[in-house]
């Protein structure tokens, strides 16, 4: 029993990342009808927003500290972040420790801007062209974005710590009445799950309860009619693209402490999140979220040692297997509407 | 001639000449000169140029003709490679059985994948092939380790059974050959300051590439090729006429899979080792880049694209900062540093950035790739001399 709970928990954070990226992907596909292969790159840029902020906060200069001596009795040289000079050490530490939340504030405008620029500058010209062209041009864009990041940040993964308060693990076992130390779970992963649930809820609420969201949903259903009603649907869709980019970026920011960001993490997640979108149903928002969590949990179940003994390597191919089976038996995906992109 | 129109035959001859004289053409700069680093006439690179040319020609038969964008063709390349290396381990180091079996195995595998993937079209097809390729990669990397060697990969050892060959001395490395002709054997021709290398392996690969190219011309010009074009222009309408397009698309898929397997087999024949990274999905992306860059749907485009990318990968990526400083050394210091700082991100290790940008520009402005670019330039020059255009009174029919 405890093993099952542990696997479900393990699946949640990976599933959260899948769900958030897939949500943005399907949002873009549903509104603009564009297959965005650069979405993984947006996720990666989000993670590098976190890297940038934490690097910026810890920028330091060397001073000679007379209070500390090395074994020869000479004063030690120590690195002091500039932020200590301004705020003093206590406040400075507190600020550095909150690098991730600060990066969220930093990432939102950056990502929205990138989203706008992408849509207006590039994607806009590809609405009328075939899906293959859209895949190709966004694939090219993904390569360019990841190479730019590689140029500035190097090819190695950059560790980005979680805030002090969320390091360490939570003992679920003790809390739920099982033996202590059987179900241990890092705090940050819980935060990640809660955060993504919040974001997903916010996106759904935004689409469901605001006039803006209503218009966008109407536009998803029938773009031309909404345009004929005198509503500037293009402008709204651009905004939705910005929001989708921000969602992917925030997923990246929060993912940075879980796995050190590197320049190809976007491509790694992209393939999987496309599979998630297809399983959930192209253009179905709830399908993307459901499939994201489902596949994340399924993947972690497949990595249990008992399962691996019976079917070695199943953890690496389970998602693709599920996708192939779903595509062949139910091409519209779990929650896709009938007739949307079924061919 | 050979069942080709005059124009196609000329093209074939041109490609044949390029392939035969590649050691000269790719080595324009004398040894030891500052420009020698741009020489691409060494065997390893020339082999890669033609082998990836084959890969791209095959991909073009699927994508260029039917418009089905597969993101999983590296899987067939990988399967072909594994098949070839097993032939080398079990049967003989002669490359002929290895190449034949790699084509056959890749064909069977692509039949399976194509039969399933072609039930869907458009984006779904792309994702299905992507899923299959990633699955094959994961399998090759971990589960099938006894067959594929996992992350260490495979290479022939002297302990392998090799039924047809005699036993080797312990410690001797088996080398691929063609009836005794060692693939690594080279003949070097020194003319003044130039060194031209004629490599046996390269000429074997180039001969195979010419056959592959000839076949692709025949496919392009056949009724079968016409049917594939019809699939691309409007599959729905084709179905309404009562034609079942599935066998045609499946045949195209399998043919292109066999081309990929052939390329994989040749890669093993030239450099006797395989690793699973050959099947990763970015490797499939590479062949997509090659085909689009050169010009999808054109005959020679994929070869140009493959040559372009492999040249960049091997030559431009080697340029480093100090070489750049040498180039711009004639300028004043400040400007020199400035120019180096501007150019540096785009070359050397950053050549992928240049590739990505060029690729995007091609997709946006030149859907016909480099071939269309060349045609546009040619037309530009023709227009300047309109008198040359009309003499025989021929006009092209309106389409």
UniProtKB/TrEMBL annotation, chain A:
UniProtKB keywords: Amino-acid transport, Cell membrane, Membrane, Transmembrane, Transmembrane helix, Transport
Q: Which InterPro entries match?
A: ABC_transp_permease, BCAA_transport_permease
Q: Which family does it belong to?
A: Belongs to the binding-protein-dependent transport system permease family. LivHM subfamily.
UniProt keyword Acyltransferase present: no
Q: What is its main location?
A: membrane
Kindly list the places in or outside the cell where this protein is found, as annotated in its UniProt entry: Cell membrane
Gene name of the encoded protein: livH_3
Coiled-coil intervals, chain numbering: none
The protein depicted here goes by the name High-affinity branched-chain amino acid transport system permease protein LivH
Please give, as recorded in its UniProt entry, the membrane topology of this protein. Answer: Multi-pass membrane protein
Q: What is the lineage of its organism?
A: Bacteria, Pseudomonadati, Pseudomonadota, Alphaproteobacteria, Rhodobacterales
- TM helices/strands, residue ranges: 16-35, 42-64, 98-123, 190-216, 237-258, 270-298, 310-328
